[in-house]
Amino acid sequence: MKIETKCLHEGYRAENGQPLALPIYQSTTYRYSSPDEITKLFDLGPGHMYSRISNPTVEQVEKKLAALEGGVAALCVSSGQSASFLSIVNILSAGDHFIASSKIYGGTFNLFAVTLKRFGIDCTFVDQDADIDELNKAIRPNTKAVFAEIIANPAIAVLDIEKFAKFAHSNGLPLIVDNTFPTPVLCRPIEYGADIVIHSTTKYLDGHAVQLGGVVIDSGNFDWKDFPSLTLPDESYHGLIYTEHFGKAAYVAKMRVQLVRDLGNYQTAMGAFLLDLGIQTLGVRMERHCKNAATVADELSKNDKIELVNYPTLAGNPYKTLADKYLPNGCSGVMSFNIKGTRERAVKFMEGLKLANNVVHVADVRTCVLHPASSTHRQLSDEQLVGAGISPGMIRLSVGIEDVSDILEDLLGSLSKI
Ligand code: PLP
User: Fold this and answer.
1) Is residue 339 located within the same domain as residue 264?
2) To test the ligand 1 pocket, which listed residue (77, 88, 105) has its Cβ within 8 A of the most ligand atoms?
3) In DSSP terms, which residues pair with 123 in a beta bridge?
4) What total number of domains does the chain contain?
5) What is the C-alpha to C-alpha distance for residues 167 and 133, in angstroms, rounded to an integer?
6) Domain containing 339 — which CATH number?
7) Among the atoms of ligand 1, which is closest to the Cα of residue 152?
């Protein structure tokens, strides 16, 4: 099946006489005929025991997401933040270190720079455009992972996935990537060497601003031999060795039965159902987002009130070559641009918009705008803002699937009034 078909038909498939739509199993727990049956579940036999660990509705969406990314297993959690957090703490403990691109979503930056530091996990932020020799300077004896975003939010920088995979693997490290903006419709990072893929499913995968969620997908390709938390007995699971019991799916299995069990951040059945509805139309939505965004980027770049339009398909964009390679079918609907002049002019432009929504959200069917320096990236210092590729006057525009002439009329109309 092609990716658009998989968006509809992977995961749940109705058998003879069953409901066509994915059923919502709105139950916290599952009934068994004897305590013995329940003991088998605690010994990790097949079946569901409690919806903090697994649920039949969520399970079908996990299967769909694993298939879309070309992975062996997936785990749906309560937010993209949860997915980022779990992707690191699943294999790092206090005293460990990891490397992340500095051009990442502000919430992830805070999580890595501040909160994980309080847990004793250190992160070094690097320039993702540096060459491997330069990147190697950040490696320490206790480095355990490398993290980056495929299209960085909101810098709209495209990651050289193969370079990062080479950098990580030559140091014996897994490459974890956030593929939220491209979605598997535009890029499947595992094909280029990524080991773990995460998403904020709150964005395009859902697409309609109705579900908050995240997912962690395991490629099954990384050899965890130097990661004792996966290869040595887990005392919190009566001596279970994850790599022995779960083979290629050890990373996600450990995350589920140990971390999500303990932290309680699993996706809900209703959340998974809404997410699945969104994924069904992902193929057509991404095509339209990309087409609209390319037209809007072209028009904005011709406007004399705009200083810079940051969209990788534009001629002269520093990421065009990488976008042509990794994102041949388009770069999603997200772009950023700077309005010439003061920050106040940028605010006036945003106030003048009638169709585009001022919201703390992105990657939605409706066109949305945001001022990152005063919102999502407000906690960052000026120096950190520069590292993240954000200027104080930058506006992030998430082009929706409306008729593109209506989007342009709104944007150009407001620009004409400033
Ligand atoms: N990753 C990226 C690229 C994001 O844009 C976001 C949120 O905007 C997140 C992760 C965090 O996701 P969530 O808001 O679902 O926690």
Assistant:
1) no
2) 105
3) 98
4) 2
5) 9
6) 3.90.1150.10
7) 3
Decide: 123 and 99 in contact? Cβ < 8 Å. yes
| Rounded Cα distance, 99 and 285, in Å | 33
> Quick one: 254 and 305 in the same domain?
no
Share of the chain above pLDDT 90, in %: 88
* 55 & 112 share domain: yes
DSSP sequence for 132-159? HHHHHTT--TTEEEEEEESB-TTT-PBP
Q: Mind listing the pLDDT tens digit for each residue in 5-46?
A: 999 999 999 999 999 999 999 999 999 999 999 999 888 889
Classified as helix, coil or strand, 79 is: coil
* 205 CA distance to ligand 1 middle (Å): 12
Residue 126 · residue 306 · CB < 8 Å: no
pTM above 0.85, yes or no: yes
- Fill in the DSSP letter of residue 25: -
Burial label, 166 (beta-carbon count in 10 A; 0-12, 13-18, 19+): middle
Alpha-carbon separation of residue 226 from 208, 230, 257 (angstroms)? 41, 9, 21
DSSP secondary structure code for residue 76 in this structure = E
Nearest residue (CA) to ligand 1, atom 15 = 80
